[in-house]
Specification:
alpha+beta, Arc Repressor Mutant, subunit A, 7 helices, globular, Jelly Rolls, four-stranded antiparallel β-sheet, about 220 residues
Amino acid sequence: MQSTLSLQTARNAAAPRDALTALDRLGTVVTLHREESLFYEGDVAEYYFKVVTGAVRSCKLLADGRRHVGDFYLPGDFIGLDAESDYIFSAEAVTDTTLVRYSRRSVDALAWEEPKVGQRLLGIARHRLCAARAQMMLLSRKTADERIASFLLGMADRSGDNDHVTLPMTRTDIGDHLGLTIETVSRSLSQLRKDGVIALVNSHEILIRDRDALEELAEAA
């Protein structure tokens, strides 16, 4: 649903100013409650979105009823840049979330008029493609503990804090993202805590105590 939150507030909470600030005049602020859907797989891809606060997960239901979480979108991330005519996944709010919604047609027209905008969006799309390839390798080659280590390091890097990891998602979300059961996720985190590699502040906050050990585990495969 649309929010009364001003676009200026959204701008202040977003990433540093760059070529993409030209998008500001095109955006509409949207808010979602926890578990509310942003769009569904197969919907016409009319919009791009940028997360301002909160978090969004992309997911797909498999034929046997299992759920696969493809990615988590955090503040500053764009959603939908890889869509063709339809969205290839569903998107849901992990927590109460604020986004800016952009008409795809308007953004594409602006990118044509202002090449720097198009170049930045292309760079973001390329980065997401690289991340998807890394995720494929993680799921195909790494053990459960190696997957958890890689995930924690990735979340720390995305937050810009090498020692502190905020996890807005649930253990079930993490398991569905990494191809693991919730029991395996919890067991791996508990073992890392026992080994002194991490400290569990609460269910959504983790401190990295030994980054070298975590990196060694992540690179073991």
